[in-house]
User: Fold this.
Amino acid sequence: MNNPIRNPEYVPGHGLLKGKSVLITAAAGAGIGFAAARRAIEEGCRGIVISDIHDGRLRQSVDALKKETGFDAVWGKLCNVVNEDNVRELIDFAEERLSGTDVLINNAGLGTSRKLIEMEDDEWNRVLDVTLNGTMRMTRYMLQVMQKRGKGGSIVNNASVLGWRAQKEQAHYAAAKAGVMALTRCSALEAVEIGVRINAVAPSLAMHAMLRKSAPEELLKELEDKEAYGRGAEVWEVANVMMFLASDYASYMTGEVLSVSSQQA
Ligand SMILES: NC(=O)c1ccc[n+]([C@@H]2O[C@H](COP(=O)([O-])OP(=O)(O)OC[C@H]3O[C@@H](n4cnc5c(N)ncnc54)[C@H](O)[C@@H]3O)[C@@H](O)[C@H]2O)c1
Assistant:
């Protein structure tokens, strides 16, 4: 039997982002960011800017998106989310290319594995700077720009279930993701008056080639076994939930964090 839980089928687009423009950070990897970019195009967005810190992969990703979808309104712009100038240049670039940004997806996040007892300040700060401060920087300037434009918008942050759950060697990453959740709730409250909704997804495990290469096999197996589905999500299964939150279907949702996981066994 083809079990849709074990082997989910790639769902076609439903026009959820018809007429909207989209900006995504950290979208030149093998993971959720690139999957979200592809999904946004399939959901009918009118234009998209993707960004990343990796120049070569960014070019390749722009080319791949155009080729795979036949959609041409795709632009790439380098941006390290820890750098305020980069952040402002990216958002200004998107405003100009897209004639205004309707949807921002804050995907950038950085993780390492280290016991707290062995943690140096540098490593702690680096993970928080990309994951939490980067999301804050992008959100702060995007809100300023959206306020000026006066057309509202929607922001989707990428948190993690580790913002709620404990895992060894993840104190820095989990603290950063718990911060992203708190940032989502508080910024959403403030953004109501400028017509911007801010929500977050909290994935448990989303499998992709880079993760398979960088994370220990036993750890991935352990995490997969914890899921009721016995597998991690496909990256596009997380992207699908991002599209819903970004779209007008989620018009009555702001400040919410949606877990994307199968119940933990
Ligand atoms: N994959 C998972 O299992 C999982 C689970 C929970 C949460 N998340 C979160 O999802 C997001 C995406 O992770 P992913 O694993 O799907 O990989 P991804 O491919 O979507 O993201 C990795 C990309 O981030 C880029 N990047 C790294 N530092 C950056 C920076 N400072 N500025 C801009 N770009 C930067 C890298 O160059 C790479 O291309 C992250 O925020 C991660 O914490 C992932």
About this structure: The chain has one domain: 21-259. Residues 25-26, 28-33, 52-54, 57, 79-82, 107-111, 130, 134, 158, 160, 203, 205-206, 208, 211, 235 surround nicotinamide-adenine-dinucleotide (CB under 6 Å). The mean pLDDT is 97. The radius of gyration is 18 Å.
